[in-house]
Amino acid sequence: VTGPIFSCNVYVSAGSNIEPVKHLRMACEVLTEAYGPLTTSSVYCNPAVGFVGDDFLNMVVGFNTNASPQSIHDFLKQVNHRAGRPLNGPGYVSRTLDLDLLLYGDRVIESDDLRVPREDIKNYGFVLGPLAEIAPDLRHPSNGHTMAELWDAFDHDRHPLTRLVISPL
What we know:
Layout: E1 8-16, H1 20-35, E2 39-40, E3 43-46, E4 56-65, H2 69-82, E5 98-104, E6 109-110, E7 115-116, H3 120-123, H4 125-134, H5 147-153, E8 162-164
Antiparallel strand pairs: 1-4, 1-5, 2-4, 3-4, 3-8, 6-7
Helix pairs in contact: 4-5
Pfam family, one: HPPK
Keywords: ATP-binding, Folate biosynthesis, Kinase, Nucleotide-binding, Transferase
GO molecular function, one term: 2-amino-4-hydroxy-6-hydroxymethyldihydropteridine diphosphokinase activity
């Protein structure tokens, strides 16, 4: 006998500064194949953070799933690797694809290799801005503020974003 299967809303950030349109499209295709229909933010352009490099294109996608947070995290790492990113490469470098699990419902998870909600939500405009676009009323599991409230209070000058029109993504 198995217990009930619960599904929840999941949010994933996607970024690239090496052939970014190609890699963001590929990420959306792979995530749709794995998890079904996606809610997608606009694509945003922003300068590299933490190193000198080409600008990044970033977006956030949301989907509903009953997959475990660890299985999603592991899947995202595999997709990053298939796109040409080393499994344990350095942090602040140019990359073909960077997919990260941001939120898994209202769960707070802290393990050796998985922290949800991801700190990037509060730290980077290129994560928070797209997330606030597609889920403005979603509450941050740790502090209770909505994504719109967090975005309104964010220092936009520190991480400038430019919304792009890229279709179809």
